[in-house]
Amino acid sequence: MKDRGTTVATLAEIIQREVNPFDPVTLKTGNFWTDDKQKDIPTVTSIHQEAIQETENFLHTVAKDHHTRTLLLMGDSGCGKSYLLARLKQNFNHQAFFAYIDPCPSSDCIWRHTLRYTVDSLMHAPAGEKESQLLMWLKNLANFRDRSLMKQLLGAKGLFVLNFRSSYPTGIFQPKDFFTVLYQLTKPEFYFLACDWLRGENLDEKDLKKLGVSTVIDSEESARGILGNFGRIAEYNKPIVLCFDQVETYRHSDGSFDISSVFNINTTLHNSNFKNFLVIISIIRNQFIEQKDNLHQSELARLDKTVTLKQIDINQAEALWSSRLAYLHSQVKPQPKSQLEPLSKEQLQQHYPGGKANIRDSLALASKLFLAYKTGQKDLGKVEENIPASFYLLWQQEFQKIRNELSRIRQFSSQELIDMLQQVAIALQTNQVKNRFLSGKYASYSFSYKSLEKNKLVGVLWCEEPSLKSFVFAMKACDKAKKIHRNCNLILLRAETVGSSPNKGYQLYKKIFRRSPHRHLQPSLEDVSYLKTYQKLANEAIAGDLVLGFQTVTLLQLQSLVCHSQVLAECNLLRELAIIPSKNDTATKEPDQSKLKELLLNLAKVHKIIGKRKLIDQVSHQLANTELEEIEQALAQLYTEKQIAIVNPNAPTEEQIIMCK
């Protein structure tokens, strides 16, 4: 009789139990910039090594003379641009400070957006470090090199500010307030408030008093000035690398796509003599070629170097496949004769007779070949991925990750929040969505649409600025819109306080939003998580980076998947806005058990055949608080409903194989 405790499974048996190592959904790493799991992904160092070396040399030049330079990173969709940026950060974070700039919602606020994301990135601690990049940057300044002087400076705010103003008598934007905020960064009780000021938060008067400053960064000019300060006083510091990724998703204020705003920022950085920045602009090669004629010659002249990512060769593709299969091979003794088993180099050569391959395409091919082997399908053309199931898994994974990362709604600017909401409204085929419903400064905080209920025109303002002074002007803009659009329903979205009776803003607010049909809704973090998840996937689709199964998904396809999957059906804010039907109009479910069964079933659909233990592990990873007993019960229900089958029900749990019917 076999001793099961000492039995070693064959590679074929391991493959039956395990997830597809080439599946783009179950092995998706999330935000490559902030996710520490990035380092766990197998890396083939030879891939794009030339581009990494060129970038390192460029970085050293900036570190040596502190002159700002710009590198244009180009390549076809799927060539590994974003992954390369992650490798650069991983390899060189000890040589520079890195900032990742998310796509901007509108060219009107691009400087404020860039500053916000620069400070947000600097607030992260590099791998292996306890302090944030921001504090490391501060303590590396020339004024901190003398330890005895530093001790004196940290003892008195006035001395600190005076010393810095003496060291930099000219060229600093809002010097008194800026140096005061730098001082407050050294005080743990004021650190996050100081960061909010640097990010461009329109703080309330009481918070400004706590910091000891009198101004806020509330314009493009002031945001540009503060960003320039970071370079101006960092002559003896490490460079700051500004990474503008997915540039093809940038838009004009009217919603049309526009790459010129990023290149315009870059030109200003050079022309205004900003110091110590390395700007990396990442863009799809075809998009750059198509829109190049729309750029001014002066903008093109400020691109100091262009690095074009090339296709990989067969040997590199082989190494990429091998690195993904290594985990499966490690469970088998003796080791398979080929590092590519159950795949082969001949398959690579057959599909890429020219000897060159796109990284993403080569991984998609491996995924299809692996699934064909796992299911015993001889005809590769008949191997199909379940796209709706893959999308469901991807959505749940991204949603959970974003929800865990969000700590407050003001993590995003009001312009970003309203842009997220507007994008979702368009995806859900909401009628007559138009941006900029209000006029003046708060136009970019607003949009309008026709609601499901009575086909009524609805104007929405999302304003999370904590300053009650600014809130007055927001309410005046609403009052003006109410008089112009007399048959319109106004909705204010705001989780921040609206003040109290003595405040003029509150008085106007009460006059407008305490009377039907105008309403004030308070969004939740859960609401924002839904909106941000869609925006992230939409940007990936526009940039050609959204992959499900073996295919790249377009924005239109994503919108269709969102509508049919109803992944936004639980978003309370969308129901309150009548963008989706109210809960009473939808079928009621047992939420927890239903979601658990749906997750299990979609995992089974994607992998076709999978070990029961691996399936349970996958669910436990995505739904961390789910008990094993609950998962077992959900699996039993799916089995009873004949949606799944257990191939070997009499085998121990560790060896049981589940197949999707």
Number of strand segments: 17
> Number of folding domains?
4
Q: Enumerate the strands of the largest sheet in spatial order, edge to edge or round the barrel.
A: 2-3-4-1-5
* Rounded radius of gyration (Å): 27 Å
Could you tell me the mean pLDDT?
89
Structural class: alpha/beta
3D architecture notes:
By secondary structure, the chain is an alpha/beta fold. It has 4 domains: about 45-110 and about 240-310, P-loop containing nucleotide triphosphate hydrolases (Rossmann fold), CATH 3.40.50.300; about 140-235, no CATH class; about 385-570, no CATH class; about 590-660, Orthogonal Bundle (Arc Repressor Mutant, subunit A), CATH 1.10.10.10. It is built from 27 helices and 17 strands. The chain has a 5-stranded parallel sheet with strand order 2-3-4-1-5, sandwiched between helices. It has a 5-stranded mixed sheet with strand order 8-9-10-11-12, sandwiched between helices. Helix 8 packs antiparallel against helix 9 (about 190-200), helix 18 (about 385-405) crosses helix 25 (about 590-605) and helix 25 packs across helix 27. The radius of gyration is 27 Å and the shape is globular. The chain starts with 10 loop residues before the first helix and ends with a strand.
